[in-house]
Design goal:
Low-confidence stretches: none
CATH class of the largest domain: Alpha Beta
Order of helices and strands: EHEHEHEHEHEHHHE
Number of helices: 8
CATH topology of the largest domain: Rossmann fold
Distance between the termini: 36 Å
CATH superfamily of the largest domain: NAD(P)-binding Rossmann-like Domain
Number of strands: 7
Radius of gyration: 17 Å
Largest sheet: 7 strands, parallel
Strand order of the largest sheet: 3-2-1-4-5-6-7
Shape: globular
Mean pLDDT: 96
Helix content: 40-55%
């Protein structure tokens, strides 16, 4: 029997991590719907046979409407919040609009989605919410203040919500990836290379040297953690932040 047979999942974000999470949830038996604000990002997911919906997670009304429409099809008992953006710059240099956009997508968007689904899950015997935070939600990094602030916030939201909804059979956990082999991480390393005068290859080697397993995190690694937290294998785990970093301490 598949780990997630008979379950229905909504995944926000169709990027490098979200698209793989959606496929992995489906491979383990779940029925999956992916939300994103970009039609272009949704096309490959839809082509893979996964249901998609055009939703901007920063729009509370759109999120609430989409959640109600999703559960009208069938109860949703897994929510994976992966939608995120990264904007670079020191606290002194970062454009306030970039700061606000990062918080809007990475934190407020997670809040809107959690808020929309917790009541619906509580009315239907519970579920599991998995919020993608980051190693940047566990410690600050230079030129990454907005991203780190948003991801620290995701962990706080996760812990608070877990305490609020546990009695309804809803578990809420976070996954904190390290350096993931993704477009976002490539942009991050390129920024570090420009800031330090190093080559992109040297920046990557510096990251790998700090990693116990000596490799970048793959989107599949993050997806496997999401599957675990969505399944009954983690039935007594809530309010936790699972680091998937390859061993960055």
């Amino acid at each position: 029997m598949s780990l997630l047979e008979g379950r229905r999942a909504v995944v926000t974000g169709a990027g490098d991590i979200g698209s793989v999470v959606a496929r992995r949830l489906r491979d383990h038996g779940a029925s999956v719907e992916v939300w994103d604000s970009s039609e272009a990002s949704l096309r490959p997911v839809e082509a893979a046979g996964i249901a998609v919906r055009l939703v901007d997670v920063t729009d509370r009304g759109a999120v609430e409407t989409a959640a109600e429409e999703a559960v009208a099809v069938a109860p949703v008992n897994v929510l994976a919040n992966t939608a995120a953006v990264a904007r670079f710059g020191s606290v002194a240099e970062l454009d306030p609009d970039d700061w606000q956009e990062t918080l809007d997508v990475n934190l407020t968007g997670v809040y809107f989605c959690c808020r929309a689904f917790t009541g619906l899950m509580a009315a239907r015997s519970g579920g599991s919410i998995i919020n993608i935070s980051s190693i940047g939600g566990l410690r600050g990094e230079p030129d990454f203040a907005s991203y780190c602030a948003s991801k620290f916030g995701v962990i706080g939201l996760t812990q608070s919500l877990a305490r609020e909804v546990g009695s309804f059979g809803i578990r809420v956990n976070a996954v904190c990836p390290g350096a993931v082999e993704s477009q976002m991480n490539t942009e991050t390393m390129a920024r570090d290379a420009r800031r330090t005068g190093m080559t992109l290859q040297d920046v990557e080697q510096q990251i790998l040297a700090r990693t116990a397993l000596g490799r970048l995190v793959q989107p599949d690694d993050v997806a496997d953690a999401v599957v675990f937290l969505a399944s009954d294998l983690s039935s007594c785990i809530t309010g936790e932040s699972l680091a998937v970093t390859g061993g960055i301490f």
